[in-house]
Design a protein that fits this description.
Strand content of chain A: 5-15%
Number of helices of chain A: 7
Number of domains of chain B: 4
Number of helices of chain B: 13
Number of strands of chain B: 2
Structural class of chain A: mainly alpha
Oligomer: heterodimer
Radius of gyration of chain A: 17 Å
Strand content of chain B: under 5%
Radius of gyration of chain B: 38 Å
Distance between the termini of chain B: 106 Å
Shape of chain B: rod-shaped
Distance between the termini of chain A: 41 Å
Helix content of chain A: over 70%
Structural class of chain B: mainly alpha
Largest sheet of chain A: 2 strands, antiparallel
Order of helices and strands of chain A: HHEEHHHHH
Order of helices and strands of chain B: EEHHHHHHHHHHHHH
């Protein structure tokens, strides 16, 4: 296992941080949750944040917390799919393809919601789940898994997730297309 | 108790006891208050979003040729897995047109070519990949292809030896034996099997077994009708005429020679080949003398080999 300082990782993967915070902001605005402050990128911990007002609306909280997970994952798949074939399968040296792969992996690496996002959701979910809220029921196992993965960031789980999405996603897609 | 005279965002002091207005649950100054309920996207972020979308379009346009190459490779891979090697080859060759350095595509193309009997296509695919060099010699796919390649090259070496022997009078049987061995080692090659049968004709000719020669020639002509096979039947019938004097054989030989001429069509190579053996067959029909090609060349062509 090797250690790379957080600011270096943040710098190398800054597009992912910006996309992550933009997704938080997008859902705050969508659900009309007041936003107190936004930082899209900085050399610090956390490297980006969106401070918004607390809400009792579980749907809003669900999308604000997990929006980046879905958004970053989708963008990771799209950019990596565009670059997957020349980089991995065809062994064509195309600088543009390598750029897109870096972009895709950078975005995918920052898909995990922060423990702060997950804590809010985790605190509200059990009570709402008891009330039959479908999103709350779905979010319980998802948040649990993401919580564990978040702690596993010290062993590069975020990079592992990015690579898994950026490699396995396109493989599955192209194999399905070949059978179509 | 909350102090409403300090803005929760920027810390600005309101300057009076009334304090800042409360937005949501916190005091905000007049500058910050409009932002909080509807935080604007910064201009640079909007520009970055546009740039990201443009990049996405560029990525997809740039990747179009790769999508095509990738699709043909995956289709080819599936056909190889299903054992449809000849069908897979054009797909994999299309992939190699765009990505000749792709280990996976080259190995699949070489495997498909070798197992469909197309040795030349396999050789071309391998040589097009870094002059035949592969980084990982322990790769399972590489080792599988290498085993087939070694088998095929072994067969080709025997076929070459057989070809050289066939050029010399008196070695037809040995040449045919080697060619059959080559065809057995590499049964996927239709060309080797066909050539082995053609060598059987030479063996029968050299052994003066003209009935055997005619039987094999007729069988080959039925299986692979063409100028060359029709010419060999004409040659065998000419031999039968030479030894029996039966004019029916002469007539049949001339008919087959005409069929051979027609089948040669306008192709210059086929025409040249036809002219070469037609001259010898006519000599055989005119003189009833059976001589080998090398003897004919020695007597009438100044010893020059006119064949390809």
């Amino acid at each position: 296992m090797f250690f790379i300082p957080g600011p270096v990782i943040a710098l190398l993967t800054f597009p992912g941080i910006i996309v992550h915070e933009t997704a938080h902001l997008f859902f705050c605005k969508l659900f009309k949750i007041p936003v107190h402050n936004v930082c899209f990128f900085r050399f610090g911990n956390p490297a980006g944040f969106v401070i918004h007002e607390k809400t009792d609306n579980f749907t809003a909280l669900f999308f604000i917390s997990l929006g980046p997970f879905v958004g970053n994952t989708l963008l990771c798949v799209i950019f990596c799919t565009a670059a997957f074939l020349p980089v991995w399968e065809l062994k064509v040296f195309d600088p543009l393809a390598y750029f897109f792969y870096w972009l895709g992996l950078s975005i995918g690496m920052h898909a995990f919601p922060s423990t702060g996002d997950l804590s809010n959701l985790w605190a509200m979910a059990p009570q709402r789940a008891k009330g039959g809220n479908l999103l709350a029921i779905v979010s319980l196992p998802l948040v649990a898994v993401l919580y564990v993965l978040n702690f596993a960031r010290v062993v590069w789980a975020d990079l592992g997730y990015g690579i898994a999405v950026g490699v396995l996603g396109p493989i599955a897609l192209f194999r399905a297309l070949a059978r179509a | 108790m909350q102090d409403n005279s300090i803005c929760a965002r920027c810390g600005a002091y309101s300057g009076d006891k009334a304090g800042h207005p409360i937005v949501g649950q916190i005091p905000l100054c007049t500058n910050c208050a409009p932002q909080v309920p509807n935080w604007p996207y910064p201009a640079w972020l909007k520009a970055a979003l546009v740039a990201l979308l443009l990049l996405l379009v560029v990525a997809l346009v740039n990747g179009r040729k790769y999508f095509h190459a990738g699709r043909t490779m995956y289709v080819g891979e599936r056909l190889v897995q299903e054992g449809h090697y000849a069908q897979a080859l054009p797909y994999l060759q299309e992939t190699l047109r765009i990505a000749p350095e792709s280990d996976k595509a080259v190995l699949l193309a070489a495997k498909a070519a070798l197992l469909s009997g197309d040795f030349e296509a396999a050789d071309k695919a391998i040589q097009g990949h870094n002059a035949g060099h592969f980084d990982d010699a322990n790769d399972r796919d590489f080792r599988e292809m290498r085993a087939i390649w070694d088998r095929a090259t072994g067969a080709m070496e025997k076929a070459n030896q057989a070809g050289k022997l066939a050029q010399q009078d008196g070695h037809a049987a040995e040449a045919a034996r080697l060619m059959h061995q080559a065809a057995a080692i590499y049964p996927e090659s239709r060309d080797l099997a066909i050539t082995a049968e053609a060598f059987d004709e030479s063996t029968a000719f050299e052994a003066r077994d003209y009935d055997g020669f005619l039987a094999i020639a007729e069988k080959r002509w039925k299986e692979y009708p063409g100028s060359e096979t029709a010419g060999v039947v004409a040659s065998a019938l000419a031999c039968k005429y030479a030894v029996t004097g039966n004019p029916a054989f002469k007539q049949q030989s001339e008919e087959m020679l005409e069929a051979s001429r027609k089948a040669a069509g306008a192709d210059p190579e086929s025409q040249k080949s036809f002219q070469e053996y037609a001259e010898r067959i006519r000599y055989r029909l005119d003189t009833r003398q059976i001589i080998s090609k090398s003897e004919y060349d020695r007597r009438f062509r100044g010893g020059q080999d006119t064949s390809k």
